[in-house]
Amino acid sequence: MEPGKTVCVTGASGYIGSHVIQILLQRGYTIHGTVQHLDDEAETKHLQCMDGAQDRLKLFQMDLLDYDSILAAVHGVSGVLHLASPLTIGAILDPERELIEPAVEGTINVLRAAKECGVKRVVVTSSVSSMVPNPGWPADVVIDEDCWLDLEYCKQNGIWYPLSKALAEKAAWEFAGENEVDVAVVNPGTVMGPIIPPAINASMGMVRQLLQGCSDHFTNFFIGPVHVKDVAMAHILLHENPAGAGRHLCIERICHWSDFAAKVAELYPEYKISSFPKDTQPGVLRAQDPAKKLIALGMHFTPMEQIIKDAVESLKSKGYI
Ligand SMILES: NC(=O)c1ccc[n+]([C@@H]2O[C@H](COP(=O)([O-])OP(=O)(O)OC[C@H]3O[C@@H](n4cnc5c(N)ncnc54)[C@H](OP(=O)(O)O)[C@@H]3O)[C@@H](O)[C@H]2O)c1
């Protein structure tokens, strides 16, 4: 698919969505971007001031549970990059309403609209959170695209955000299979790097907490650091390259939270970073370059040290730390 075509990006206002919009504009695309509230400058201004936005970015107000609002944004595009989904890793009062329903129904609504509008390909943003935790995964095998989160384990342990991502991804594959919609999935890890929107998102919030001395180590989270620009590029690569099929792990490496924290402490000794036991994610095998499918498609991943520097410098420059 040639740049210059029109694509729809859901969740345009968000942390990753803003980078997707920026790169698509640089590549000459015309974009239908969705935000939740068109009258809220916090969702729109950082997009509208990007180079090329005035002529080639049209924003649509969209609610994942409102099919017509999705249809309006998807009408007239040749591809959809579906990023919008609630991302909360803190306390959840009503997981069904806050996370699962918008993630699952929203994904089905986007795919339905894509089918109705004759869209060629939909790139869906899933997560490594749809792969783990999976206590049944063999201890001697590096986690890859064959790994799916254990739904029952997550329900029993109240691990809601990963559950919402796994259910949404499963719904996407089911809908694609039954309706002949061409879907490719990106499964990013912990996304970090420069922040464009005026608010901080959940993954950069985790880095900020670490720099503030927090000793949580997210036992149930798979730690796959990845640069936000690489995640944005992976979406565009899968949109432009029909050879990319199925799920795509999108991480620079698999490491434990302890490894990541130790590297942050080494690079930024002026912060009081908690020290952790060596294995903060027992059972998860460490691996370098595990995103073999994206690498085969031409992706180059930013090294972890640079990811950390870009993340911390952005937090500093925006006054978050
Ligand atoms: N950050 C990570 O480490 C990470 C890792 C793996 C996967 N992901 C996935 O990547 C995607 C983007 O995440 P992000 O980090 O960029 O988070 P984010 O900044 O919170 O962005 C989420 C986007 O979804 C939109 N959204 C949420 N609920 C919606 C609803 N009910 N209707 C319409 N739009 C809705 C938000 O709109 P508002 O701006 O109006 O709230 C926002 O644009 C999500 O699918 C997330 O699960 C993220």
Automatic annotation (TrEMBL):
What EC identifiers does the entry list? 1.2.1.44
Q: Which UniProt keywords apply?
A: Oxidoreductase
Q: Which domain of life is it from?
A: Eukaryota
Report the protein name in the record. Answer: Cinnamoyl-CoA reductase protein
